[in-house]
Amino acid sequence: MAGEPQADCLFCKIVKGEIPSTVVHETDTTLAFRDISPKAPTHVLVIPKVHYPDAASLAAAEPAVAGDVLRAAGEVAAQEGVVGSGYRLVFNTGAGAGQTVFHAHAHVLGGRGLEWPPG
Length: 119
Ligand code: AMP
Ligand code: ZN
What we know:
single chain, alpha+beta, HIT family, subunit A, 5-stranded antiparallel sheet, 3 helices, 5 strands, 21% strand, binds adenosine monophosphate, binds zinc ion
């Protein structure tokens, strides 16, 4: 069924606690943890606890949870102290755009200058 945990999904395993992560924020529907390979001083991943392969399919199927991910990302940014300096939310979508984990996630990046446009 749509949204069900996938046995072979890294982030579903993190949600279930089968793989350790450094959790910084959690709600009923979302989990946020530090990226294992940070690309900025603040680099947190915010994921829905339900499994969808990318942000657009999450938003199409469960728009309220997609909203929860955005709200959680803003709360993480505030917690991390990067609201004043600015931060970036990134949803890589598709292998060609650098997506490597096919469970929807927002990158919260901040704490350094961020170039525009991104590479
Ligand atoms: P993406 O490339 O947009 O799919 O993002 C996937 C992110 O997951 C990358 O930035 C990885 O560094 C990160 N990542 C992979 N494995 C883990 C893990 N076990 N814990 C935390 N972050 C991870
Ligand atoms: Zn998953």
